[in-house]
From TrEMBL:
Signal peptide: none annotated. Residues 7-143, 154-289 form the UspA domain. Pfam families: Usp. This is Universal stress protein. It comes from the Bacteria. Keywords: ATP-binding, Nucleotide-binding. Belongs to the universal stress protein A family. SUPFAM superfamilies: Adenine nucleotide alpha hydrolases-like (SSF52402).
Length: 295
């Protein structure tokens, strides 16, 4: 990264946002990067009157509130981590637009998750979902209702595609940086064998499991040579990927997943597994930009 790289955290004063702020501050300090606190007060709508108030008046009030929230956030970080360089700004753009713009020069964008119900996956305005899907940098989504323990592992999900490299690079790097154990997880039952082979040539589940074990072993061996200090365990299960990773997230300090999955359409900017983790995982979720998504 260039010398201008920063860690950007988007906040709105809510509890999830404060959890994201604290997480981003610790990450930035560990990376020796400055932290930028971003508050966006714009609305997507351009209507001139809303509920009896002019939009300009509402924006002025929102900007004042945003500045107060920003000052409290910078003070909070400065008191906890005085060695960290922290700055902030209030943007007149809507939150998603402001964070996507910031992602172009950020090493990482961090946002909070409000812990919405399962219907949240259908809400197009979800900031965490939109930023995870479209940001140019990696994105971490942080929940406010659980803090990981000191020995909590980093969990990374892989699917056997060329996109695994980005996720493994990030996961091994984070585990090494935090001296945390790493769990490399692979689920293989989501691939249907029906129609892939004729009845005589179809492999048995035992053969599929062996192939999955070998895939994970090759990946771990290759990356372990680069990160010899990282303690690695593997989980290979006949399970749906999202369900397996959600289970592992219950005790994880961080879950790493690629922005695309094996089953995604080429035009989709975030895979179904990443989308479910962003909304439902108990642990912070790092969505890594794959080469396809970055292009």
């Amino acid at each position: 990264m260039s010398d201008t790289s920063v860690v950007t955290v988007g906040i709105d004063g809510s509890a999830p946002a404060m959890a994201a702020l604290d997480w981003a501050a610790r990450y930035a300090l560990a990376r020796e990067l400055p932290l930028q606190v971003l508050i966006a007060v714009g609305w997507p709508s351009e209507r001139q009157i809303y509920a009896g108030y002019r939009v300009a008046e509402l924006r002025d009030a929102a900007r004042i509130d945003g500045q107060k929230t920003l000052e409290r956030a910078v003070t909070r970080v400065g008191a906890a981590l005085p060695a960290l360089s922290v700055s902030g700004r209030v943007s007149d753009e809507p939150p998603v637009h402001a964070l996507l713009d910031a992602s172009a020069f950020s090493e990482l964008v961090v946002v909070g998750c409000r812990g919405l119900n399962p219907a949240a996956e259908m809400i197009l305005g979800s900031v965490s979902a939109a930023v995870s899907a479209h940001a140019r940098s990696p994105v971490v989504v942080v929940r406010a209702d659980r803090l990981p323990g000191p020995d909590a592992p980093v969990v990374v999900g892989i699917d056997g595609s060329e996109r695994d490299a980005a996720a493994l690079d990030a996961a091994f790097g984070e585990a090494d940086r935090w001296a945390a154990p790493l769990v490399v997880a692979h689920a293989w039952s989501d691939v249907s064998l029906v129609g892939m082979f004729d009845a005589a040539a179809a492999p048995s589940w035992i053969e599929v499991r062996h192939h999955a074990d070998e895939l994970v072993k090759r990946q771990v061996t290759a990356w372990q040579t680069r990160y010899p200090r990282v303690r690695v365990t593997t989980v290979v299960e006949r399970e749906q990927p999202a369900r397996m990773l959600l289970d592992l997230a219950e005790k994880a300090g961080l879950v790493v997943v690629g922005s695309h999955g094996r089953g995604g359409f080429a035009g989709m900017l975030i895979g179904s597994v990443a989308r479910r983790l962003v909304h439902h995982a108990d642990a912070p979720v790092l969505v890594v930009r794959t080469p396809t998504a970055a292009r």
